[in-house]
Structures are given as structure tokens and as C-alpha cells.
Amino acid sequence: MANFKTHLSGGFVVSGILGIVGYKAGLLGGHEFLICVALGTIGGLLPDIDSDNSTPIKLGFDVASLMVAFSLVMHWRSELSLLSLIALWLAGYGFMRYGIFYLFTKITVHRGIIHSIPYMAVLALGLVSLNYYFMDTPATTSWFYGLFLFIGAMVHLGLDEAYSVDLLNHRMKRSSGTAMKLYRDRERYWYVLLYALIAMAIFIAPPFAPFWNKLTDPITWLILKDGLLPSQIFASLTSTLN
Ligand SMILES: [Zn+2]
Q1: How many angstroms separate the alpha carbon of residue 239 from the centre of ligand 1?
Q2: pTM for this one?
């Protein structure tokens, strides 16, 4: 298994390169490009969120706990005294950080169901619909956001897979099975549920055709070709070739 740093840079580098390609091809605007790279990087860390000792999950829970505590205080700030607010802040933080986190670590098993292709597909499709229906993001952009999250997650699973195989192509830990998994008999009911969720998510997802048309539009790739080289060099190159 690859470590946290490898996953962080893997997700960042791959989504960064793809994001620049998308931006140069005119598929993504400036701030969409940034969101795509951020989502790809998050995707690169996502499959390990069920690891109880993993850095991202601890960090995530710390941030979430602080935010919950802070919003509780903000909500009651005029009604309660200063001392009660401090008590509320501590109680909110403690409940999230120790109560909910404890429950979360109890019910999840690392490298279980979350560490799989279909689970990541559900999350990516969910993100597409969330953006389209609740954030007023255009369909094409929503699909790009989901795609980048999914690509980041696939980079993660691919890295885990690569790190579990040594140079002579021997699998180092047979027990761990494959990282890029689509199904596991031991968790068959979970997988049936996941594929049902995928079918449902595809059914409610925003239209896919405009996204696909934009991606396969020859104009898109002409723009990209134009932006490939510094314009001066490109112009002189084409004139020498002609
Ligand atoms: Zn992993």
C-alpha cells in the first residue's frame, strides 16, 4: 500500500495535468480548473478514509468537529452567557471528535467496502448530482467535477495495487487481495447494494450527452493543439513545415 504522501502527490499530479489539459482545451474555466484539481486530490485520499489511523480521516474529523462546535456557538451566541458558550463549544467538539469518531471507527473496516471502484463511483455520481441539483452548476461542469473525483480515487487504487506488487511481479501480501476491486464475495450484499446505488445515481444524474459532446468535439482538440506550443514557435514551425 502506498502511503499518505504518495497518494496526496499522486492525486494532485494526475488531476493537475488533466486539469491543465482541460483548461487549455477550453473545457474548464479558471476557477473550475482549481476545483477540479482540488477534487482530484481529495479523490486521491478518499479510498483510505475508512482507515482509523489514517492522517486524512483524523484531520477531517478534527476540522469537522471544530466546525460543528463553532457553528453551535454561532447559533446560540446571543441567547447564552459566555460560560455556557464555552461549555457548549467543548461539548460539541467532544461529542463529534470522540463520540461520532468512535462510532465511525467501530463500524468501518479498513480496506473494506470503501476501498473499491463501485464505492468511488457512487461518491463521484453523487457529487455530479449534488452540484447539478443543489449548487446550480451546469451539467457539463458537474460531470467534470465527478470525473476528477473519480480519477483521483482510481489513481489511489492504482497506486495501492502497484505498491502491493514487487519488481518481479510477485504479490507481496496475498491476503490483501487486489486494490482495484469491483467485487468481493465476502461482502456480496454490500456490492449488490453499491451496484443498485450506481444504477439509481445514473438514473437521476444530469444529462450526460452535452458533456460527452463537448469532450469529443473536434473544436476542443483543435483549441488544445493551438495552445500546445508557444504561439511564436508554433507559427514558425508550421511555416517551415509548409
Ligand atoms: Zn488505499
Answers
A1: 50
A2: 0.71
